[in-house]
Amino acid sequence: MTIAIIDYGSGNLRSAAKALERAVREQGLARPVLVTAAAEQVARAEAIVLPGVGAFGDCRQGLAALDGMEAALAEAVIARGRPFLGICVGMQLMAICGYEHGEYPGLGWVDGDVVALEPADPALKVPHMGWNELQDVDPGHPVLAGLNAGTHLYFVHSYHLRMREQNQVLARCDYGGAFAAVVGRDNLIGTQFHPEKSQAAGLRLLGNFLRWRP
C-alpha cells in the first residue's frame, strides 16, 4: 500500500515526502511514503506522485534516464489506473509537448502544451512566485474537496500548461491572465502550485489525494 514519490533528480523531494507523511498521519492511514528511482517499486505502488522543479526539458530527460520508469508509469497509471499526482513541472510533464528552451515531448496524458507565462500586465514579474488564489474550482472533484475559489496556494513557475481540452482544467489562477492551476482526467491530477508548500490547504489536497479512489 505504498505511496511512491519518483526521484528523477528534480523536485523538492524532502518537503514533498514530509508533507505526504504528515497527510498520512492526519488521515489516520497506515501507508508508507517511499522516495524512489526504482521502476519496480513505482510499478507496485498504490499511488504515485511526480514532483518537479526546474526546466521542462531537464526534467523530461531526467525521467527518461531512469531505467524502465516510463514503462512502469504507463503500466501503473494508464493501464491499471493507479492514482497519480503531478506537482509543478511534474504536472507539466503530463502534457503533449513542452516549449521551455526548446521543444520536448511530454508524457501525452493530457491534451495541452507547456508554454511561457506572459502576464498581460508588464508590472507582473516572471517567475510567478508566491501566494495566489484559485478560481473556477471544479466543485465535484474529490481531490479538490474543501478547496474553493479564493483558496490561497503557493506558486513558483515561469511556464504554464495551456490546455486544449478545457474540461480537463479543474481550477484556474490569474496572473495577468488566467492559467490552469489544476488539471486532470480519470485517475490523473496535477497542480501547478506546490501543495507541500501551501500549508493547511496543501495538506488538505494531499489528504484528499490519499483517500481518492478513482
Q: Between the first and last Cα atoms, what is the distance in angstroms?
A: 16 Å
CATH superfamily: Class I glutamine amidotransferase (GATase) domain
What structural class is derived from the secondary structure elements?
alpha/beta
Rg value: 16 Å
List strands and helices in order, with pairings.
Blueprint: E1 3-6, H1 13-27, E2 33-36, H2 39-44, E3 47-50, H3 56-64, H4 69-79, E4 84-87, H5 89-92, E5 97-98, E6 104-105, E7 112-116, E8 128-133, E9 152-157, E10 159-163, E11 169-174, E12 178-185, E13 188-191, H6 199-211
Parallel strand pairs: 1-2, 1-3, 3-4, 4-13, 5-7
Antiparallel strand pairs: 5-6, 7-10, 8-9, 11-12, 12-13
Helix pairs in contact: 1-6
Question: How would you describe the overall organization of this protein?
Answer:
The structure is a single chain. With 214 residues, the protein is α/β, with parallel strands linked by helices. It is built from 6 helices and 13 strands. Strand 1 (3-6), helix 1 (13-27) and strand 2 form a beta-alpha-beta unit. Helix 1 packs across helix 6 (199-211). It is globular and about 45 Å long. It starts with a strand and ends with a helix.
Put the structure in a nutshell.
The protein is 27% helix and 28% strand. With 214 residues, the protein is an alpha/beta fold.
